């Protein structure tokens, strides 16, 4: 059976009507609301064919039809329009990006909140996985006679402080020398770049103060490597309750509980293998999701980069009856703005 142009136009009308109303639709409604140039009887026959092809389904006996996951997949892959953002939306997004760019954690939290408001769905943004991040700057600061503070700044202006115990007091000018030494050798490196020959070289250069190097390296490793150190910002979680698909409180509660599980969210966003994610936007629809709580949801994700490395994910979760075009346009605009902005702010300064 051929999926001809008329069937495609009818499928588009069914999807548009369902996005607008959340109600199954019949051939008479399609004929009345959409100028397709064919009779209600012809539309009914074509809808029967679309059902046989698996693009629409009948949720209840004697009810109209709704799009299936397969229908949505055809729509997002081949039929979906990408509406331009309004001038007001562009202004708001640019304003927030420019105001918050000084601190990556603040910026990502604002992005999460902004996306939830703009889309009326649930947004999820992950902070960078530190093992993919490079050291930007280190500073040794005196605390007392038996301890110093190591301040580590990573790309993205993420700051971590570590207290290091020392056996012998270190003068301020010596701390400055050691700080310069650490930055000279370690600045711009990831945890994988710090090898044994490099460590031995730094230890020789540090002389009598080489005793603190192991503690310094432990702190660097903890900051750059531990996956538990990154955060997930979720906003608009209760937006899901606004959709009739989740009137069942048990269903809604299970989904909200899932969104509170950090490891589960990472799996959901396919966040463990960023470097193999070549798509600008990735869309997973309904039954394509492996988790049962997400079988009636769609997830639209993109990623952002620091220093040319893909390190974090931005996702939108909503019902399969999602305004895909609006969400995709929003995320496409966002990633076009964020990636160059981060590269300019956090990397060109050091060159």
> What top-tier CATH class of the largest domain fits best?
Alpha Beta
CATH superfamily of the largest domain, by name, is GAF domain
What's the story with the biggest beta sheet? 5 strands, antiparallel
- CATH-derived topology of the largest domain: Beta-Lactamase
Number of domains: 3
Count the E strands: 10
Folded structure, characterized:
There is one protein chain. The protein is built from 12 helices and 10 strands. It is α+β, with helices and mostly antiparallel strands and 351 residues long. It is elongated, with a radius of gyration of 26 Å. The chain folds into 3 domains: 75 residues, Arc Repressor Mutant, subunit A, CATH 1.10.10; 162 residues, Beta-Lactamase (2-Layer Sandwich), CATH 3.30.450; 98 residues, Enolase-like, domain 1 (2-Layer Sandwich), CATH 3.30.390. Helices cover 45% and strands 18% of the residues. A 5-stranded antiparallel sheet has the order 7-3-10-9-8, sandwiched between helices.
Which tags fit this structure?
five-stranded antiparallel beta sheet, Enolase-like, domain 1, alpha+beta, disordered C terminus, Beta-Lactamase, 3 domains, 12 helices, three-stranded antiparallel beta sheet, Arc Repressor Mutant, subunit A, 45% helix, 10 strands, 351 residues
